[in-house]
Amino acid sequence: MPKAPRTKLSQHRAALLGAVLLLAATSASAACPNPALPVLEHAGAVYLQSKPGYLVLCDGQTTREHPLQNRDASQSTRYINGHWHFSNRTSFVVLISAINEVWELSYNPRTPDIPSGKIHDFQYREGAFIPGYLNPQRGRLTHPAPTQAQAELTEPVARLRQPAPLLSS
């Protein structure tokens, strides 16, 4: 038996119901910070949280979940090894020794975009870029981090906390 064609009113109701359901799902998932996850660090309204296999950043409007895997997704882990807050750089730094990487996640909305992939020309932005806000800028560790990574990183972390020298012209 063929279905009766939808009228414009029933199509409008279906679209309205879909929009209401989408809004309910968005507002339910937009809780920042997520009460089910531990808060590792926070700066004002920006929260750094962790769940197995993911690093979660949220600012009340945007929530980003970054899988804990290296740049080419050939290695992954479930946990991070250390995290620090650098207020003068407006960023969080996360050590992930299982994939030999250090991530810097900026919570400054004016952070420059991060190059991802091959870049032909930075000046003319020829290449692939992602927004710098709440996304990781990755650094490779030359040696695997020891278990007591926080003790080993004390001196480099202290250098990061110092403001960068101004360039003179």
SSE sequence, one letter per element: HEEEEEEEEEEHH
| Radius of gyration, taken over Cα atoms and rounded to an integer in Å | 21 Å
Please state the overall shape, judged from the principal axes of the Cα atoms: globular
User: Which range best describes the helical content: under 10%, 10-25%, 25-40%, 40-55%, 55-70% or over 70%?
Assistant: 10-25%
Q: What gap, in angstroms, lies between the N and C termini?
A: 81 Å
Give the biggest beta sheet: 4 strands, antiparallel
- Beta percentage is 25-35%
Structurally, the number of domains stands at 1
Task: Give a quick rundown of the structure.
By secondary structure, the chain is an alpha+beta fold.
Give keywords.
169 residues; signal; alpha+beta; 4-stranded antiparallel sheet; 33% strand; 3 helices; 10 strands
How would you sum up this structure, described in words?
The strands form 3 sheets. Strands 1-2-3-4 form a 4-stranded antiparallel β-sheet, with no helix packed on it. Strands 5-6-7-10 form a 4-stranded antiparallel β-sheet, with no helix packed on it. By secondary structure, it is of the alpha+beta class. The longest helix is centred in the first third of the chain and has 22 residues. Helices cover 20% and strands 33% of the residues. It has one domain. It contains 3 helices and 10 strands. The protein is globular. A hairpin with a 4-residue loop joins strand 6 and strand 7. Keywords: Signal.
